[in-house]
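Workshop exercise sheet. Pairs work together: one partner reads the sequence aloud, the other fills in the structure field after running the prediction. Swap roles for the next sheet.
Pair: D.N. / O.F.
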Amino acid sequence: MSALAKVFVVFVFILSVAFFGASATLFQTRHDWKVAYNTVYSQTEEKFKEVDAKIRSLTSQVDEKEKAIYELRTKDSELAQNNSKLIKDLNDEKKRTESLMIENNNAKLLNETLGKNLEVMTKANENLQKSLDKVKTDLDGALTNAEAAVQARDSMRLDLEKSQQELHRLRTEMKELTDKFESAGLQLASYRQRYPNDPIPGIEQPVEGLVTAVDDEEKLVVLSVGKDDKVEPGYTFTISRGNKFVGKVQIMKVFPNLSGAKILFTKDGEAIAKGDKAQTDSAMKS
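Structure field:
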């Protein structure tokens, strides 16, 4: 039932009470019915006006309340929509919060990992710094040594130039001696061919043999003659190939049927080889 219907019910109820009240009064006082009726009508009309004024007032209040209710419902609907939106925003915010918490946890883990890596890198940097300091120290020492080495190199260059000059002089002398040895050997061989049974005064008969092995790195040769041939350490042998002079060797160690000798020198462009002829210059030790 609406508020306006309730007002009309109250109005009818008031009129009924007023009518019955007036009837009872007339009955008790026994007034004239017309007068009573007019009186009651006047009173009822006044009451009706009062009630109508109240109804109008109530109707106005009801309209205002219905308007207020409509506004409240509208606001309630808006609030409901806002509430739904807020709930959705809250859920979205919760999701973002959860995502941020996950990212925060990941960031913590990453931070811990970075912290450990930083410690490792710090230790590695310390070790690298120590190595760098050592390298710097070694470099300073190396620079010092380099300066000394440069000085030593310059000194060695001077010594090398002197040695080259001395070597050139010795080569020149060796060539002269080689030519003399070769000439003397050829003269001696010619003399022995002409006078095989005529010994040379002060010189025993030569010992002849062959080169059986050569070690170029150690400058050593092995000859096919030894103690049985009266060869002794210190003897010198001329090495030849046909009528061509090759070089000179000196006996170092003697065995019964062979001996070891060191190469004294060879002719320029020549090298002692297995099968070359070996012959003593004299039987005397050099």
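Discussion prompt: The first helix runs from residue 3 to 29. What would you look at next?
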